[in-house]
User: Fold these one by one.
Assistant:
Number 1:
Amino acid sequence: MLKAIILIGGPQKGTRFRPLSFEVPKPLFPVAGVPMLQHNIEACAQVPDMKEIILIGFYQPNDELNCFISSAQQELKIPIRYLQEFAALGTGGGIYHFRDQILSGGPAAFFLMNADVCSEFPLQEMLRFHRQHGKNHCGVLLGTTANRTQSLNYGCIVENHETNEVLHFVEKPSTFVSDIINCGIYLFTQDIFGHIGTVFQRNQQERIQEELTNGKQMPEVIRLEQDIFTTLAGQKKLFVYKTQHFWSQIKSAGSAIYASRLYLKQYHQAHPERLATNQDGTPKIIGMLHEEFSLNKLLGPNVSIGKGVTIGGGVRVRESIVLHGAVLQDHCCVLNSIVGWDSTVGKWARVEGTPSDPNPNDPYAKIDSETLFRDGGLTPSITILGCSVNIPSEVIIRNSIVLPHKDLNRSFQNQIIL
Ligand SMILES: Nc1nc2c(ncn2[C@@H]2O[C@H](COP(=O)(O)OP(=O)(O)O[C@H]3O[C@H](CO)[C@@H](O)[C@H](O)[C@@H]3O)[C@@H](O)[C@H]2O)c(=O)[nH]1
């Protein structure tokens, strides 16, 4: 039997998702109409012999997370539970802390994945690849190809081209190491805990020494990438399975729009019922929708509209996420933007952002997780309206971030509106 563990992080992570992460924990932000985390969970639930999915993070359990877990359990008919770390223990520390729960029932192997990745999740292929590589290794890493410049933002893997063994692993190197990058999706046997345990013991000695000499409390963090993969590389313990399918990180709100596009495309095969259909007498929709609308509006491509959204006549929306309860009044235009919960865009208003899509001419390009500011100014990016923002009629809001509950009275460009 198998298990799956998803690392969901905690409140101080997800800062590039502000102001949207003020309202929901980042893993529950909707991507292609469902919480980001649901895509990972659905992929895990489809693997035969999957017995349990465990979420590990340092969020305080709250109603939203509990509701999400219980509805996902019911829908997918698989046990899902949340284990809370007492502090951020790192990508290896959390699983080590909860190793007894992970190993209970004796899983033959377990998947581990970051919650903030969007992927076709080739989990069954990884499982087959793992079985083909005998019993003596302890893990398979999912890898994909990136271009040379962008590879520096990821964990980089050097492989043996014949055997796919991981020969070197360097996390976010400062100079080029390899164009194969770590996707943050792994398959491990229980042997991985022996290796994390060795690092844990060593760190423990150092922590005690440090406390005795300097009186300083050191955190118990273990990073899977720097502390484990780097050491295990070259010991025939790790292998890399390379995927040709889509994969992207979801670090910023802009990357959520890009990830939505990737998932909406996948819905044509995987979940056609989630896509809006175009029938005679209904508006033209290229994307997905939760509600029924009347004629005379053009929505899409790549649009997801939350429940309870009101859309007036003559409205144009594309490359955007409109969250539940929002009101788009007649003839307004929303492009490359996220409209927050219960926000209103007035008549003939224009809310517009700059897409941060990967270079379409480079097959290996990934989305850039730009910093918020460059050269002293706000980096042109998608426009984000926090929740309950009011945009009056006939104004233009471009490349701006509007914090929740703002009532704007004029046009704005390239600003964070506090
Ligand atoms: N539970 C828990 N989760 C954590 C912790 N720290 C990070 N995470 C979760 O682990 C994932 C990755 O965390 P980051 O620390 O933000 O790393 P990264 O910059 O995304 O890089 C990682 O992912 C890349 C692929 O997206 C990899 O290329 C890279 O090697 C690395 O694994 C996220 O889902 C985050 O929420 C922790 O202390 N506890």
Number 2:
Amino acid sequence: MILSIDAISKSFGGVQALDGVTFDVSEGTIFGLIGPNGAGKTTTFNMISGMLRPDSGEVRFGGKRLDKLSPDRRAGLSIARTFQHVQLMPGETVIENVMAGAHLRGRSGMMGAVLRLPRQRREELAIRQLATEALTLVGLAKLASREAGELAYGQQRLIELARALAMQPKLLLLDEPAAGLNDAETEALGVLIRRIRETGVTILLVEHAMTLVMGVSDRIAVLDFGRKIAEGSPDEIRRDQDVIAAYLGVPDDDDA
Ligand SMILES: Nc1ncnc2c1ncn2[C@@H]1O[C@H](COP(=O)(O)OP(=O)(O)OP(=O)(O)O)[C@@H](O)[C@H]1O
């Protein structure tokens, strides 16, 4: 298992956002995390990306405890994420935005900049190359020198995705990547997400667009009121009575 979520719980004041959620993600697969509004998807996502720590439970990546690591140590791990809302530098070119992702993993620090210029030049070229490959994968290579802020919204989301890919992640966390996209763009995104998996990247997908999740995920976990109510293949999830009830808003009589 590349990622193991083991009995994580989290409350915010009086709200139990997560209550003992457990699931495992196998390497090289696409794992969908779904659930109605307020189910705890973002909270789970933020615990994997390191923005939040669980009150209890463990998050392990490649066997290492993520929930114990400082933000600095996490930065060295091969986990990249995209955001629900586009976070680009609109005045910079497309490729500069993507290179900003790769820069995070560049090894020349301040001293390197002063003492080893040639090496830094080499790194710069390598980063540019990584960024170009990422842009090619998402289909934006031709727009590399355009200003990011000038592109259409759907393309800006792809720049974000390319920036995450330029980090060469083993695990890619996608937070509602289809938000704001039209049907054709969402379909194209599905093809792209599968293509990214083919390069060996493991993907965790939090998404409301059901057709996308059902179409690309190898496995899906469903959260409702902070608990996992189902896990399985897209077909199993589609037929699951608890899942159907949760989405239809049928009152939960579990605690009878
Ligand atoms: N920082 C916070 N402070 C207080 N309550 C929070 C905080 N973050 C989340 N919550 C609450 O925790 C619960 C789970 O929220 P979360 O955002 O994880 O759900 P979600 O499944 O991502 O929902 P959505 O689909 O609407 O984004 C909700 O009741 C939410 O109001």
Number 3:
Amino acid sequence: MPQTKSPLQTLQVAALEEGWNYREQARLGWWPNFIDAQQCQSTWDELNQLVTLEEGFINIYGKRHKIPRLQAWFGDHDYSYSGETLSSKPMVGILATLCERCEQIAETRFNSVLVNYYRDGQDYMGWHADDEDELGTQPVIASLTFGACRDFDLKHKQTGERLRLALSDGSLLVMAGATQHFWQHSLPKRLRLQQPRFNLTFRYIHSMDAD
Ligand SMILES: O=C(O)CCC(=O)C(=O)O
Ligand SMILES: [Fe+2]
């Protein structure tokens, strides 16, 4: 019997090699066991202690909407997006330690980290590229996951090609090169999931102040 393809066929998880991978103008670094299990547990506890999570908002057509997750921002500069400003706190303790480890493996400097907290599978992040002017032309973004494993989708802006990664506890994904220019990414909802997840994205923010 001929095989019929279901239109709802699930996306295959893209098999990335550990280390640097190249896919259609994306440069992706993948270290699935970057933080070991014991350290994941202590890191979770330290993040809970250190991070004051806040509701965030975005403005769409002049209307202010609550974003579907909690967040906090650490680094040298405040962070502005979509008409909102996140005031920064100094990157200290476990955040500074993780920052250094990410800098070493990604071979770059970071001066900020966005902490996202997904309370359960209802929380998500929609399609976007991290392409604000403050991030520079070829931003390197190091994304660390703690807690629940979540699918992470990438979509090529021109061809529509899709990649799906499973971001598990202690994994590190680095998006570099022209990734933000050619691809968008998102973290889809998973309605049956009850466990929370921390995601830390280390970034380098260039000061936009006039000299
Ligand atoms: O939670 C994630 O894995 C994605 C986070 C993200 O894309 C962002 O903070 O810009
Ligand atoms: Fe992002």
